[in-house]
Amino acid sequence: WVGAMQVLKGNMTIGELITYNALLAYFLTPIENLIGIQPMMQSALVAGERLNEIFDLDQEKNEKEDNKIYPKHLSGKIKYSNVTFRYGTRRNILNNISFSIESGSQVAFVGESGSGKTTISKLLMNYYEPQEGDIYYDDYHIKEINRAGLRDRIAYVSQESFFFSASIYENLCFGLDRLVTLDEVVQVCKQACVHEFIGELPLRYETFLEENASNLSGGQRQRLAIARALLKKPDILILDEATSNLDSTTEKHITDMLKDLGSQGITIIMIAHRLSTIQHAQQIFVMEKGNIIEQGSHEELLFYKGEYYRLWKNQTVHVEHINSESYTMRGDQYE
Question: Is Transmembrane helix tagged as a keyword (predicted)?
Answer without folding.
Answer: yes
